[in-house]
Amino acid sequence: MNDKKLEQIGFYTLTDARCRNASAISPLWRCEILLTNQCNFSCHYCRGRSEESYTMPYLEAERIVKKFASHDLKNIRLSGGEPTQYVMLRRLVATCKRSGIERIAISTNGSAGIWLYNDLIDLGVNDFSISLDACCAADNKRMNGGNDSWNTVTDNIRKIAKRTYVTVGVVLDDNNMPEVNKIIEFISGLGVADIRIISAAQHNKLENISMVDKTKFPILNYRLSNHNANRNVRGIMHKDSNSCGLVLDDMAIWKDKHYPCIIYLREGGSPIGDTNKSMRAIREERLKWHKNHKSKEDGICSKNCLDVCIDYNNKFMYSRSIK
Q1: 20 and 319 in contact (C-beta within 8 Å)?
Q2: How far apart are CA 179 and CA 228, in angstroms?
Q3: CA-CA distance, 82 to 101, in Å (whole number)?
Q4: Residues 100-130: pLDDT tens digits?
Q5: Distance between CA atoms of 45 and 134, rounded to whole angstroms?
Q6: Helical H runs in the chain?
Q7: CA-CA distances (angstroms) from residue 113 to 166, 254, 275?
């Protein structure tokens, strides 16, 4: 990986320049806020927070956005649960835009009315990650826990993709893995910018995927190439970095706490600290976590860290070793 540019992977937040310069005082590169754990789907593989129902008060969400934006936050992702069920979502997106955040992303199941997605685009959202785990209505209903949303979701994907950047996320497990090639072929015809296939945390492997030529989908090609080289989507190997460089300028927020990353949060890991502290204190807490944490000794990181994050951290480690 060291001789390959991170830009070639296809994840726009990952660059060689970011990797070389990341520190406790560099600009904040990315933040993901879980606005609510409410969702109209019941996907059996979901790794959302399982405690009682919670929706972040708008003023708290606004405080976090403005606080991080004042420290040059480049990219923000609003997720959940299902963020389109967050009543104040449009107002929060407008706040993100006014605050100067360059990339405003939404992770959604795609089942809301198209009017809402159009409003969000008009307000500043320029990145949608939409979930679709099947290639037909019956399988989709089975994967999402019984919601009959196939026509709405697929129509929305087509329409949104004509207006802005859209990736479709496909979570794969024993239930839909046999249809993976059909799923990829179906989604490739929806006009999206890319396809993100990922194994469910409970499954943790990809199987029976054809190495097809999808040159217009860099993230899909990245994952297919890894699969072809017998590399799983998740899991740190012995040759990989034992530390996390992403934690320095990338964070996940749930309630009033900041976590190492979204996977660590969803898998029940402990937060690093409190978002009510000063930005200097928050960045110093994350630097301390970076210095003291051993990824290979942490059960969440060692089993669940994604290939793209591992590649970033390997390059991060390499860039420090040659300075």
Answers
A1: yes
A2: 18
A3: 22
A4: 999 999 999 999 999 999 999 999 999 999 9
A5: 14
A6: 16-21, 58-69, 89-98, 114-123, 137-143, 150-161, 180-188, 218-228, 262-266, 279-292, 299-304, 307-321
A7: 16, 26, 33
What is the mean predicted confidence (pLDDT) over 256-269? 95
pLDDT of residue 320: 83
pLDDT digits (tens, 9 = 90+) for 298-321: 999 999 999 999 999 999 998 887
Beta pairing partners, 106: 78, 128
- Domains of the chain as residue ranges with CATH: 6-321 (3.20.20.70)
CB 140 within 8 A of CB 132: yes
In tens, the pLDDT along 18-31 reads: 999 999 999 999 99
Residue partners of 322: CB distance under 8 A and separation at least 6: none
Distance, in Å, from the CA atom of 297 to the CA atom of 309, rounded to the nearest integer, reads: 17
Per the DSSP assignment, residues forming a β-bridge with 239 are none
Closest CA to 62 of 23, 19, 24, 33: 33
